[in-house]
Amino acid sequence: MTFAVGSLVKARDREWVVLPESTEEMLILRPLGGTEDEVTGIFLPLEPVEPAQFELPDPKKLGDYRSCRMLRDAVRLGFRSSAGPFRSFAKLAVEPRPYQLVPLLMALKLEPVRLLIADDVGIGKTVEACLVAKELMDRGEVDRLAVLCPPHLAEQWQSELKGKFHIDAELVLPSTATRLERNCRLGQSLFDLYAYVIVSTDFIKSEHRRDEFLRTCPELVIVDEAHTCAFAGEGRGGKHQRHQLIKGLADAPDRHLILVTATPHSGKEAAFRSLLALLNPDFADLPDELGGKENEPIRRQVAAHFVQRRRGDIRSYLDADTPFPERLEADETYSLSPEYKKLFDRILNYARETVQSPDANSRHRQRVRWWSALGLLRSLASSPAAAATTLRNRADTLDTETPEEADEVGRRTVMDLMDDDAKEGIDIVPGADISELEANSEVVNRGVEEAPLLTTRYSSTRLKQMAREAENLKGSKDAKLQKIITLVKDFLKNGFQPIIFCRFIPTAEYVAEELRSSLRNVEVVAVTGTLPPAEREERVEQLAESPQRVLVCTDCLSEGINLQAYFNAVIHYDLSWNPTRHEQREGRVDRYGQPQDKVRVLTYYGVDNQIDGIVLDVLIRKHRSIRSSLGISVPVPVDTDQVVEAIFEGLLLREQSSNVSDQLSLFDQDFFKPQKDQFFSQWEAASEREKRSRTMFAQETIKVEDVVRELQAIRSAIGSSVDVASFTEAAFKVHQAVVSETPTKALAFDLSEAPQALKDAIGGQESFQARFELPIQDGQLYLNRTHPIVEGLATHVMDTALDPMVDSVARRCGVIRTNQVSRRTTLLLTRFRFHIIAKQGDEENPLLAEDCQILAFTGSPEKAEWLEPGQAEKLLTATPDGNISADQATTFLQKVIDQFDHLSPHLETVAQQRGNDLLEAHRRVRSAAKLKGVRYRVEPQLPPDVLGIYMFMPVPKT
Is Membrane set as a keyword in this record (predicted)? Predict the structure, then answer.
């Protein structure tokens, strides 16, 4: 016998639902009321399987007024193949915010899906992209998924996919690829073998790897940090290779492609246009100016593929408040100690001598000296520990052979490059010892009168002496450190758990060590690039277990690991030379999911430190000003390193006034003012372009009313976080658990008196604190519909209610007298199962959908007058206002059961209508499927299951 998908069968003394993966010989079954973990297969030639029909309730097993609502919620929360407009939402471990439906609705209207998600930092772009992927997978349109991302973000993606979307993805990194390939057959690619992969973009971009990936790539690709894949001009650099890779993916006409970035422009219009061209080749020829009524059709076409919103745009979207913390920003300054100031001036003079030293015979030597001096100054501004290490280390640029190569190495070690090629080793201290270069210079200049002077001036002896002086400045003579200790104590006293960002590894380790010795009962941990990514995250999680904690780290943590659950303050111990890096640092704590309503950001700099003063004046303050006026960050429109180089060239090549105010206003002097004006003008122009873009591409392709409609349909089909909360609290209480509210507005559950069977069903937990919406605080669980506690509780309630041999708190029938009705009203709790068939050509893809409905009628079954759905739903809140005996209740229910044949035609009519509604919703949200000739039909599995019969009798008039 062939069993239809969704039909009810009996085997092994229990009822099962037939799943779509079944074949003629092998039935894949889920136990009635069971979870995905209980799915099993039965080989028909060996085991008997019979058709089954759900029996009507036993009228003698009466429940109370709570039974219907509790059983309905348990059934609905148990669905994993829901009948709402989206196939995937019943399987998510997170409830998407209303605004996060917009990219999903946009994507489903495209064929293939080509989408650029460019929402602001901390809004949840990862969740938005994963929602699209999960929905396409659960609709059967996509079998394989690849996420391309920077290597340091790979584990974050793996965690998000597993924890929130139940997708187990393999990491494809240099450290894992060989192991994964061992499992491949001859000629088989690991991308053929593993359906879900997270791939390092930099690992796969090389020509050898790229060609294999393009050949075997999954149907759906998500590209994170997509701005790093924009076209960067002709060449063979890393960015060019990344662009070639993504362009190759986009060239496949049927491939679904989702680009994710918080900075689509990166300050460069051409790069932005190249990203748009990946979505649609026609976008490569967009007009330079998209404004004006004549370009409105073009703007709408682009807007169908491009979503970009600020926090202010979505904070109260559809009246659903999305809590973002208030950012409290402040500046703190320090002055160098006399000893430190003396060394600073000495090293600054040394740096000037170095770069000004005549050596016309070699531009390469000039560039080596330049980067050595600049690296030394930066290290000195950071800490005596970093300065001492730099002074003792051999300059990295010494191994280069050309000026261009020296510049490339120097920029990578000294500047704050945002390119992914520079991410690894980002916090390694540069070297400044160029004595080898000077020895070679002496040979070249032998016989020249000045050669002996050069040899003396740049000898390693001088560097070692300055290194010893720097070492002696550690601790009490380091005013920068001493003041930060006081500031950190203040942070902790006021309830803030800070992250202190440093530029170099020696600085972070030095600051952490000094803080440990100065702070009592506070755990201090340093995390730097010396640790592999997995261990960094492990260190952070271990630190989070301490009630009082301070994290000292380098920019190896400025991306990838979200830290809002553990920390609520950021201190910029060292100023970044790229303001975008500041925004990334602050974004680790200032994002959705931060449990505190305020986060603190402290920018820390020296008032008599020319290095800090210049960067603050030219970059940081301007960046703040633009962010304040626009509501978002706008990257520097030119290469930041070129700007900084120009500034420091003036510092090192021109003698400066000893006056502090003159030093801090260096860029306002006549020599620099034209450059500053031009630079700021470019930045402001980029800000205006960004502002126009956000106005121009405001999301108008998806109307608010469309989101409202689908949101209501989702909540009707599977419930919301409010339903999860009310069910969980009520169900635990009727099972003798004690539920109380904590001072932090979470719920505390004590299950010590609850039945052991219930505790076993939820994993053996006896006490815990929980919330049903993000954010959560330390020690709290986030309970969503797929959390093991909620899933286990729903399964326990439903199984005990449906099992005639078990005494359950939620019964399948009941009768109460209530003032909420004026006539006898009967409510039916029904479950419908549907077979959704998507047909393309001759191929059919069957899907199972389940739906729970409340139906109610007045009068007898023979002359039933059916209520509107809204009226029936209200009956779930009815409470008893009068008494009724058990015998009377059983008699009333038995009459309904005896005449149930009169109700069956209406139930089948409702099943057909619900099937039509489901078909319309399925087509509506995936309208673009028509472009591929996909046709849907829905077949209800009859008869529907009647899970419960509940009667509401009017209170007799006295």
Answer: no
